[in-house]
């Protein structure tokens, strides 16, 4: 599945235990010898009518949140159940997803994490002026984000700058890195380097982070359109959390072969 080109492998493990290991996640994430994905989402059984979602990065590490993947899973479950509102349990906590109509799904990504220890950062610093060249802002959305406000996001060499900032010592869990320029108070252009080592066409939690940082600095309103390489996401920072709305797409369904699985041993 994908949301604006932010692509995912979704494994349905609701009828059994979570089959994913770091080795399997990394092998699946290999775009040459596996399937390839920006992130892996594993659907599992939850409690009290909730559905559980676990997230993996393509380097075999875990992630607590992925907004676009959550919207993709919501589409699947809504199609099965006919429900237009769902509650998911993730490493980020409880997330609510809704059918927004016209093929769009929205999800409440929760309140942004806006203290140094919840982002998390290695030490207490000004979250709107990190001690990094370019004075980026930091925010947590269940995963850490480092947001640079620049004159022209198109001119940024993501492949060169992304890995450097992902591994900055200020971010003990590494970080996603966003470069944005403000078009006007309701529109932002954004490009993203995702934690795990890749340029992606879109990043839902990154779009939420960019909206929070620019609104916090007084550069934009709390409701904005984020224009990503893959297309636009609508972000609305409300009293109950940061809501994200956008499209999803189901590309194909399949099964892993025994040959592939045996090759992981």
Strand content: 35-45%
- The N- to C-terminal Cα distance equals 27 Å
CATH superfamily heading of the largest domain: Diaminopimelate Epimerase, Chain A, domain 1
The CATH class of the largest domain, by name, is Alpha Beta
| Low-pLDDT stretches | none
| SSE class | alpha+beta
* Strands, total number: 16
The H-and-E topology, N to C, reads as: EEHEEEHEEEEEHEEEHEEEH
> What is CATH's topology name of the largest domain?
Diaminopimelate Epimerase, Chain A, domain 1
Largest sheet: 16 strands, mixed
Enumerate how many helices there are, as a single number.
Answer: 5
Rg over CA atoms: 18 Å
> What does the average pLDDT come to?
95
**What is the helix fraction of residues, given as a range?**
10-25%
Please, how many domains? Answer: 2
CATH architecture of the largest domain: Roll
The coarse overall form would be globular
How would you explain this protein's 3D organization?
It is a single chain. This protein is an alpha+beta fold and 265 residues long. It has two domains: 2-109 and 248-262, Diaminopimelate Epimerase, Chain A, domain 1 (Roll); 137-239, Roll (Diaminopimelate Epimerase, Chain A, domain 1), CATH 3.10.310.10. 19% of the residues lie in helices and 36% in strands. It is built from five helices and 16 strands. It starts with a strand and ends with a helix. The model has no long low-confidence stretch (mean pLDDT 95).
């Amino acid at each position: 599945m994908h949301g604006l080109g932010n692509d995912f492998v979704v494994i349905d493990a609701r009828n059994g235990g979570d089959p994913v290991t770091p080795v399997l996640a990394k092998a699946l994430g290999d775009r040459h010898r596996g399937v390839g994905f920006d992130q892996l989402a594993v659907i599992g059984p939850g409690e009290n009518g909730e559905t559980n979602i676990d997230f993996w990065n393509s380097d075999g590490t875990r992630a607590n949140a992925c907004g676009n993947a959550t919207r993709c899973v919501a589409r699947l479950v809504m199609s099965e159940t006919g429900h237009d509102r769902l509650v998911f349990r993730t490493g980020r906590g409880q997330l609510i997803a809704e059918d927004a109509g016209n093929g769009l799904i929205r999800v409440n990504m929760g309140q942004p994490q806006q203290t140094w220890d919840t982002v998390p950062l290695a030490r207490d610093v000004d979250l709107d002026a990190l001690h990094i060249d370019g004075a980026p802002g930091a925010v947590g959305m269940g995963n850490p984000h480092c947001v640079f406000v620049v004159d022209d996001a198109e001119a940024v060499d993501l492949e060169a700058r992304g890995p450097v900032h992902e591994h900055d010592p200020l971010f003990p869990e590494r970080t996603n890195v966003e470069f944005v320029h403000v078009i006007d108070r309701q529109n932002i252009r954004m490009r993203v380097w995702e934690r795990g080592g890749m340029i992606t066409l879109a990043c839902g939690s990154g779009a939420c982070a960019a909206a929070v940082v620019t609104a916090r600095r007084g550069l934009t309103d709390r409701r904005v359109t984020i224009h990503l390489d893959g297309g636009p996401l609508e972000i609305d920072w409300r009293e109950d959390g940061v809501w994200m709305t956008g499209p999803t797409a189901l590309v194909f369904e399949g099964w892993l072969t025994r040959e592939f699985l045996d090759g992981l041993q």
